[in-house]
Amino acid sequence: MVIGGIQKFSLLDFPGRTACIIFTQGCNFRCPYCYNRSLVLPEYYTDPLPEEEVFRFLRKRGGLLEGVVITGGEPAVHPDLPEFVAKLKSLGYLIKLDTNGSFPEVLKNMIDERLIDFVAMDVKAPPERYEEVVRAEVKVRNILISIELLKNSGIPYEFRTTAVKGFVDKDDLIRIGRLLRGAERYAIQRFVRADSLVDPAFRQMVPPPDEVLTVVASDLRKYIKEVEVR
Ligand code: SF4
Question: Which of 88, 164, 177, 206 has the CB geometry, 3.0–4.6 Å to 191, for a possible disulfide?
Fold first, then answer.
């Protein structure tokens, strides 16, 4: 596994669990609002952390941390993801996977093999705007397959979208929400400015106003059990 970094403790990233976060390096998307360019753009990569160093830390923390969040970048671009996660599970950790949903076959295998305990999947845009928003070639069918897979998986999951005024805004959120009809949980995440954005021009952007997001969330509660703005 190519590990770009580790956050040793978090109370916020794995619902209800104490966890550490492993950041994998590399992504097949180029979302302009992404604040992790050192995990996405090769020219910003730092030297990867040796996998053994990460396992040494996790063996010491056994019993103190309940879970490991695997995030990126996009973890599923790495063919050894299932094997890496199986090693973490053998140490007794619960696993949360953050994914952009473009590798449904990997997701399915990991669910079938009971390697993951929670999945957070980004749904970036309505289908017809996907490539424009993520600035990469996308097989949108794969995203739709991953959505259905999670809805029927029986494991806890959430879908989430980053909202950016004038880029992924009210109409997009409503169309995405309709696509997620019947889902358990959807989080609309306000875009946050950062110095490390994939597209520095997005430093000028802001999230849609809270009044708009609140109205959208309440509309989407007709289709989705829990809708949160955060
Ligand atoms: S926000 Fe987009 S570019 Fe950044 S890691 Fe996620 S999928 Fe990749």
Answer: 164
Tokens 């669990």 correspond to what residue? 17
CA angle 54, 37, 191 (to 5 degrees): 110
Position 63 pLDDT exceeds 80: no
Ligand 1, atom 5, residue with closest C-alpha: 73
Specify the ligand 1 atom closest to the Cα of 72.
Answer: 5
Segments forming the whole domain that contains residue 206: 3-229
CA of 74 to the centre of ligand 1 (A): 7
Which protein residue's CA is at the shortest distance from atom 6 of ligand 1? 73
The residue contributing the CA closest to ligand 1 atom 1 is 34
Q: How many domains is the chain built from? A: 1
Confidence of residue 61 (pLDDT cuts 50, 70, 90): confident
Burial of 222 (0-12, 13-18, 19+ CB in 10 A): exposed
> How high is the mean pLDDT of the chain?
97
Taking the C-alpha atoms of residue 187 and residue 14, their distance in angstroms, rounded to an integer, is 14
